[in-house]
Amino acid sequence: MALLKVKFPFQKRVRMAQALWLLSWLAVLGGTFTFSLGIFLKTELHKRAEVMDNTEIHAVPNTLMLAGLASLGINFFAGKICQDSLDVARFPRWKSFMQPFFVLSVFFTLLLLVAVIMSYAMKGNLEESLKVGLKNGIRFYKDTDTPGRCSQKETIDRLQMDFRCCGNTNYRDWFEIQWISNRYLDFTSKEVKDRIRSNVDGRYLVDGVPFSCCNPRSPRPCIQYRLTNNSAHYNYEHQTEELNLYSRGCRQALVNYYMGLMNSIGAGVLSVFLLQMTVLVSLRYLQTAMEAVVGQENAEIETEGYLLEKSVKETVKEFMDTVRKLLQPTQVDAAAAEGGAAGGEKAATPAS
User: Fold this and answer.
1) Could you give the percent of the chain with pLDDT greater than 70?
2) What is the DSSP letter of 214?
3) N or C: which end of the chain has fewer CB within 10 A?
4) For the residues 66-91, what does the mean pLDDT come to?
5) 218: closest CA among 236, 199, 204?
6) What would the mean pLDDT of 195-218 be, rounded to a whole number?
7) What is the CA radius of gyration of the chain?
């Protein structure tokens, strides 16, 4: 028994074809929008590639671009099918094309839904990527003379100023690494020597941060060095005073930025997904309603349209049987190959 059967008089079929033609071209714009969102997100991720450790997060924009391009093709053909459905003589040429068209359309439409789910589910991957990437970025901050790392200082400084953040987790991350290059240290100075000797790894560590951590909104002139030394600054209490540095870590700032971006993109793509599903469901009804007209003398007869020719259970069973038939020759060939190999081994064994 057909699933969700609906009756379509001639006038209703015509109005549906016309409305669906407009809807399919609106969905073309939706596909363009999805593709553009994918490019935009990929560009934003590439901007911060130096502070990201892996490229798994790029699966979201890649999926969006693929689904967007596929949506353009799907809805272009949907518009052509709607046009030809108004002419009974031209519609039959689409008959052999419809089944693979619907299979591909459903696959790429579900890909839109996958992209939406991924945009909400990638927070853990994003956090881990930024955690390692920012840690390395801060560690290489001083390597302005090292090939491949010359721009790392500029990248981190711009990042901290643009996102109003400091360090990976907070400003204390700068206390644990040597961020001042040896090139700018006076090794004849007793203070420099003492600091290097006091460290197991022989690094020059200070309780200070780069200038880019300074918050310009603070009324007090920026205190970058000797942050934990109360006596080094007038009217200063490190434990209780609100420092004139950005308190938020850059990892949290970037996670908030990218997740806000992806959540907004997810909402936009979800609306495109719903539009695409509306086009496919309507097109399926139009196709089945028009197939009943083909071969009839009177093209203005009332016909029935449906989503599935049989029930969901029967359709799934039929699909699984088709898949088994396709896989069966492969299994037979594998079994024959194993049998041939066993026969060869038996022939090679000398008779006792």
Assistant:
1) 84
2) B
3) C
4) 83
5) 236
6) 88
7) 33
